[in-house]
């Protein structure tokens, strides 16, 4: 079966610094995969390459077997911070796809309902809490019905309780829409709880990966997840990247 995503970066350099070195990753449709690794190991660079935002590399990104050259509607991106446009309403931000008039699109309202924000559709971003703003960013990331959603440390700026709620929301939405997720996180608990597989990066390549076998819905304090987390930490420590 053809993988939904097949990325192989032979080399990615910034000036004379080699950031990615023979990095390969495949994702099957419906999979949830996390990337973990030390700061500066190339996680965001890899997501930008997959998203088509960085084309100055030697490598190839295939979506459903088709080589990609540039951004693609089937790939959504959620950043560390919500990046909402302050002069547009919540609904306009969600429907912002070169055309703020899409705010009246019923799809915008169904997405806002899904993330529990229908009542603030006409509010400006400044009226939102950090967690609410990131929920808007999730709705916006889903607007084009992407088959693959890339998330770069999406919950790192919110408190621990909000973070757990957002993780649950993300899983529910991914299941509902059949969206495949590739997520960068520094939080090994988050990686273990959310993922089918956790890929550990170091020295510009994929060092190892841990498959999380725990059935869903998962209990956060399960022994299997604790064991998976310890394995991930051991790989990171073994690579001298923590
Ligand atoms: N636009 C750029 N110009 C020059 N160097 C860059 C650029 N973007 C990233 N780098 C460098 O490439 C390396 C990888 O950066 P990247 O942002 O991918 O790391 P990361 O794994 O996402 O780190 P973090 O966990 O801190 O977000 C770093 O050494 C960084 O300094
Ligand atoms: Mg990064």
Give structural notes.
With 242 residues, the chain is α/β, with parallel strands linked by helices. The chain has two domains: 5-74 and 146-238, 3-Layer(aba) Sandwich (Rossmann fold); 85-143, no CATH class. The protein has helices at residues 43-51, 90-94, 106-114, 130-142, 160-177, 188-194, 223-238, and strands spanning 5-14, 17-27, 32-36, 58-63, 66-67, 75-78, 148-152, 180-184, 197-202, 205-211. The strands form two sheets. The protein has a six-stranded mixed sheet, sandwiched between helices. Strands 2-1-4-5 form a four-stranded antiparallel sheet, with helices on one face. β9 and β10 (205-211) form a beta hairpin. α3 packs across α4 (130-142) and α4 (130-142) runs parallel beside α5 (160-177). The protein is globular, with a radius of gyration of 18 Å. The structure holds adenosine-5'-triphosphate and magnesium ion. Magnesium ion (MG) binds at residues 43-44, 152.
Question: Summarize this, please?
Answer:
With 242 residues, the chain is α/β, with parallel strands linked by helices.
Topology overview:
Layout: E1 5-14, E2 17-27, E3 32-36, H1 43-51, E4 58-63, E5 66-67, E6 75-78, H2 90-94, H3 106-114, H4 130-142, E7 148-152, H5 160-177, E8 180-184, H6 188-194, E9 197-202, E10 205-211, H7 223-238
Parallel strand pairs: 3-8, 3-9, 6-7, 7-8
Antiparallel strand pairs: 1-2, 1-4, 4-5, 9-10
Helix pairs in contact: 3-4, 4-5, 6-7
Bound molecules: adenosine-5'-triphosphate and magnesium ion.
